[in-house]
């Protein structure tokens, strides 16, 4: 019975871990390393509303508006991720995410979702 339980855990744990690691929050956006793509937030819009990056790349959003905005992932590979809704960014603050898994990651600015939408396609 123990062997069966151990075998089940060996299969289930890597699958759960792989799903949880599709995205990684970069604790210090200014120190993001590896390939980094910049997306400015200005004039109530994501300056590059759709972009394509390679798996393992980081995207860094910087708010250049005097009002607060955020990045909130909706559905797709980010569904169920406990950090899918980023913090509100004041002027000149940044937020960065490393994309580990291929897929299409749609996002919005939560308080301005009718006009502020974006998409990251990870190959």
TrEMBL record:
Domain of life: Bacteria
SUPFAM superfamilies on file: Cupredoxins
Molecular-function GO term, any one: electron transfer activity
Compartments, record wording: Periplasm
Cofactor note: Binds 1 copper ion per subunit.
Keyword ATP-binding: no
Organism (species): Methylopila capsulata
Cofactor annotation: Cu cation
Keywords, ordered alphabetically: Copper, Electron transport, Metal-binding, Periplasm, Signal, Transport
Signal peptide: 1-20
Binding site for Cu cation: 69, 109, 112, 116
Gene Ontology cellular component terms for the protein in this record: periplasmic space
Record flagged with keyword S-adenosyl-L-methionine: no
The protein's name in its UniProt record: Amicyanin
Domain Blue (type 1) copper: 37-123
Cited Gene3D superfamilies: Cupredoxins - blue copper proteins (2.60.40.420)
């Amino acid at each position: 019975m123990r062997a069966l339980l151990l075998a089940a855990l060996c299969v289930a744990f890597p699958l759960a871990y792989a799903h949880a690691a599709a995205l990684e929050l970069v604790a210090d956006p200014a120190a993001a390393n590896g390939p980094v793509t910049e997306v400015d937030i200005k004039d109530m819009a994501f300056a590059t509303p759709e972009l394509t990056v390679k798996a393992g790349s980081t995207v860094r959003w910087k708010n250049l508006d005097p009002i607060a905005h955020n990045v909130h992932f909706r559905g797709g590979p980010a569904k169920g991720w406990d950090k899918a809704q980023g913090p509100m960014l004041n002027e000149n603050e940044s937020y960065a995410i490393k994309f580990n898994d291929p897929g299409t990651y749609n996002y919005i600015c939560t308080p301005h979702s009718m006009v502020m939408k974006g998409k990251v396609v990870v190959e």
